[in-house]
Amino acid sequence: MILLKHASVGIGSLFAIQACLSIAAADDLRWTKSSPLPDPRAGYAAGVLDGKVVIAGGTYWEGRKGRWTKKVFSARTHLYDPTTRTWERLADAPIPFGYAAFAVVQNRLYVMGGYTGNEESGKILVLERQGSTYTWRVFGELPETRLFGWAKGIGDSIYLLGGVREFEPTDDVGSCCTSKTATTRLMVLDTVKPEQGWRDLTPYPGGKRWAFAAESDGETIWMFGGIHAENAADTLTRYNDVLRYSIGNDRWEKLSPLPPDIVKTAPLSPLFVKDKLVFMSFAKTVWQLDPKTMKYTRLAPLLEEAMVDRFFWLNNEIIGTGGENKIEGPRRRSEWTFIGTFGQS
To answer: What residues make up the domain containing 115?
Structure first.
């Protein structure tokens, strides 16, 4: 197991990774801002339905800079149209939630678990189109409560990876979080045959963690980094693992670790753009990984520092919105909607 304490980078380490990092021309990727998210929040569920980006639930803080007093969990749902660059409010979710896992299968957004502001949720919610509107319903129950998990819809199935079973705030107002209840579990559910229940697959190797990044190309699941602390006073363990799961073979493999320059900019939001993995970071920096060569390339940075929960590749654009920003962080929520486009290379 390879891990970093506080993601420190020494001179020797920088020289060691020099060969696998390179700088791309700044005009390969261009960023602009679109219409702001009407209710800025982080820890939301999101997906693409009918060619539009849906943002549901999430958290925000009451109070002001220097005196943030309470974390609030939302049930609001908004839809972003990338053609008109406008937002529309949809029906609220049946319950408020934050930090749920989420995935789109057959044009339905599934939301799994999360925290309501009062308790951990084991519910699976679905947002789907009914005629000219979008409606919510309860789809079923998880085998166990789950927060900060990652999920992906592949075919008719949902793959649910990792996370924690309980909300573990470090103070009375809801600041995050320790990870005593973290799990290495990987499960799959066939949404066409939900009565068959969730099936356990091979758990990810290595130490338990949360706040990892993950993405899938439909054949493999990639998992990056993560953090762990049993108690608030513990030294935070930051993992630099890069793990890849073969869906067809039910097997994990460990690849070359994340370079320290990337680990120290986590949390990361990875996204497959064609045959490359693009990572947007909390520190504005953007990286691209070629899975064939395992070479990392630095792309043009985001316009602002923001921890965007999830980005999407839609209509040949990278789209991401909300999350935390650093202007009044860590509790200030971002209203920015980022649009990334690639030039001709």
So the answer is: 3-342
Q: What pLDDT score does 344 carry?
A: 56
The tokens describing 249, both together, are 């073979």
The closest alpha carbon to 333, from 5, 47, 55, belongs to 55
How many other β-carbons are positioned within 10 Å of the β-carbon of residue 82?
Answer: 18
Domains of the chain: total:
1
CA angle 20, 25, 29 (to 5 degrees): 105
Confidence of residue 66 (pLDDT cuts 50, 70, 90): confident
Helix H, strand E, coil C: the string for the chain is CCEEECCCCCHHHHHHHHHHEEECCHHHEEEEEECCCCCCCECCEEEEECCEEEEECCEEEEEECCEEEEEEECCCEEEEECCCCEEEEECCCCCCCECCEEEEECCEEEEECCECCCCECCEEEEEEEECCEEEEEEEEECCCCCECCEEEEECCEEEEECCECCCCCCCCCCCCCCCCCECCCEEEEECCCHHHCCEECCCCCCCCCECCEEEECCCEEEEECCEECCCCCCCCEEECCEEEEECCCCEEEEECCCCHHHHCCCCEEEEEECCEEEEEECCCCEEEEECCCCEEEEECCCCCCEECCCEEEECCEEEEECCEECCCCCCCECCCEEEEEECCC
CA dihedral in degrees (150, 154, 156, 161; nearest 10)?
-20
Residue 272: pLDDT over 50: yes
Task: Give the residue, 24 or 340, on which the prediction is more confident.
Answer: 340
Give the CATH number, domain containing residue 21. Answer: 2.120.10.80
pLDDT at residue 1, as a whole number = 39
- Tens of pLDDT, residue by residue over 127-182, are 999 999 999 999 999 999 999 999 999 999 999 999 999 999 998 888 899 999 99
